[in-house]
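dumping this here before i forget
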Amino acid sequence: MNNDQSSQREVLGKKERWELRKQEKQKLQEIQQRNKWAKKVSFWVITIFIIGSLGYGVVYLATRPEKPAPGTAFPILGRDHIPVGTFHPEYNSNPPASGSHYAKEAEWGVYQNELPDEQLIHNLEHGGIWISYKPNISPAIKIKLESIGNRYKKAVIVAPRAKNDSMIALASWGRLEKLDILDEAEIINFIDANKNKSPEPLAK
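structure:
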């Protein structure tokens, strides 16, 4: 083989290697381009998903029905002040949850004796919770109710009430819940949900 043929094969080999490197470089660029495009697509897919999820969440929160407050709602009978001992229209619940009442509210706290309904309605108007119970309840239940009342020293009144038609009654402004068993969780729920839902939210 002469030198010209050897030199020609060497040149051809260089061209083939150069062409091969060129093809590999093009493939690498194509792969990088595809990866770049895939990243862009993934970014926008994730972004659209997040925006859509947030939008759905906002719409859901704005349109979902509000959880009803515990207890039964009673029509508000007004909030007129009346002198002690004055006649007034009959209340629409037992115990009452609104209506004509005395001008002076009771001090918050636990009582061993009954207080007038007309006085405690004023406390409800101020956003408080009135926990009443039949006088013949067990000492253990009475102690538990008083313990709950002492947790809310400026928002709750606990007192016996002979006219109750349930063992325990929970009253707030315009709402009433009756219990025939001691349910501490339900009592706490009623207090937290209904406290200060009143014309004069002054309870603390």
